Amino acid sequence: MQTRPASLVVERTGPLALVEDAGRFGCRHLGVTQGGALDWISLGWANWLLGNAPDAAGIEIAIGGLALKAEQTIRLAIAGADLGATRDGEPLDANVSFTLEQGQVLAFDQPRAGLRAYLALPGGIDAEPFMGSLSTVAREQLGGLDGRGGMLQVGDRLSAAGHAGEIRDMPSVPPMPRDEVVLALVTGAQIAHFEGASLFAAFNQGWQVDSRADRMGVRLTGPALRCQLGGMISEGIPLGAVQVPPDGQPIILLNDRQTIGGYPRLGALSPIACAQLGQCAPGTTIRLSPVTPHQARTRYLRQLALWR
């Protein structure tokens, strides 16, 4: 007889702990954004460590502070940022699978490298999806455990959706961004309308990640970029779109972005670059590197192939 899946109880919440999977797709024409894990690569690795599908729902833990108690013995996995995780006060390595015995507490402290850690449960998280996804989008009040876009709260119960599959070891640990990171950008959209000096600055000078950053987007500070384009009709905007508002300081739009926008764009970050940006702390220096759509797609497919 198969036992019921194990569960965890939230004992302490941090700044932001959310249920996230790969996101919601096929609904942007309705004005519903995709949501999903900012660092989809780290979520994929956490799931891979337990033998889950790479897009299974896990917990995105931003900055730390979360504490979870095991109601039954459960196998878990962590990937992504090093948030000083401990098991009953004893340090745990990042990017590993491990067992949490009944009554033991898994706790996260604060960032040591990166910003977001991802916790995977066997088979994902047992909850009711909305539009095919559990991803939490607070602005639209969608997804999550409560179905209304809420972050995890003290007393919430996280139940595994299944049982652990093949337990694996990480073949290599993806590096977390440090003081400087190069992000691949697929040029396009309105790039031809930017002044030559602005284009040179965009790709040859460093940008700093501003403190005004969240799951909707990340502001960059640096040389003011000038566009010769006048008014624009709002149009659909993809993940990683690099918009330039009138102040000339780019905004990179992420998973919880609005579905349309009317500022000119340099283009969009590649999927790999979006995951990297999700781990960049304020003050990190960003350099934009132009790539072709083929190059971006090849690197994306190469990452997916690692989880087969």
TrEMBL record:
The keyword DNA repair does not apply. It holds the Pfam family CT_A_B. Keywords: ATP-binding, Hydrolase, Nucleotide-binding. It comes from the Bacteria. The keyword Hydrolase applies. GO terms for molecular function: ATP binding; hydrolase activity. Residues 29-307 form the Carboxyltransferase domain. Coiled coil: none annotated. This is Allophanate hydrolase.
